[in-house]
Structures are given as structure tokens and as C-alpha cells.
Amino acid sequence: MLTLNYPHIEKTENQPARLKRFPRIRVAQIVMDYIAYGWSVEEMCRQHPYLTQAEAHATMGYYFDHQEEIDQEIKEEWEQVQQSKNELVSSPFYSRMKTKGLL
Q1: What is the Cα–Cα distance from 27 to 17, expressed in whole angstroms?
Q2: Whole-number Cα distances in Å, 3 to 6, 66, 91
Q3: Which InterPro entries does the UniProt record give (predicted)?
Q4: For 59-87, what is each residue's pLDDT tens digit?
């Protein structure tokens, strides 16, 4: 069986894939730029100066090899944001600000 190695990506069980050098940055976050803006690896590195080309290529390689996993992570994050927005809309603070014309 072939085992693929992504030298700049760290993936632990039940955790999202992340950059080794910047563990707070998930592969899905970088992939969202690719999906949303159609950015190339070079453009991702221009937009995110901390990102090396090797890291960006490893990220995209990981994505294409694990697309279902990353797409699911992005979908779940999107749904969580939408749920949070819906909860915000119904908050008393939002209602008061809306009534006062401040939102």
C-alpha cells in the first residue's frame, strides 16, 4: 500500500489537517481561498506572506488527495457560521439596535 507524505502538513486523528509550522492554520482555511477566489499557489503566497510555496503546494496536494474530508470540514464551518448569524439576529441586543436604526 502506498503511503503519501505531506512534509508541511500535520494531521492527527479526529483533528483537522494543519500546517506544521503554523498549527493554528488549517488546510481548509487555505483551500477556501482557492475555492472562493480561484487563487493559484503563487497568489496564495502573495496574499499570505507567511506561507511558503512548498507549504502552499503541500496544502493543495493534501486537498486534492483528501477533497471529501476538507470539503466536509468547510461545509460544517459554513453551517456553524450560518447558525451563529441566525442566533445573532434574534438576540435582544440586535433587536434593540435594529429598532434604533443603528443596524
Answers
A1: 6
A2: 10, 13, 49
A3: DUF433 (IPR007367), Homeodomain-like_sf (IPR009057), WH-like_DNA-bd_sf (IPR036388)
A4: 999 999 999 999 999 999 999 988 887 77
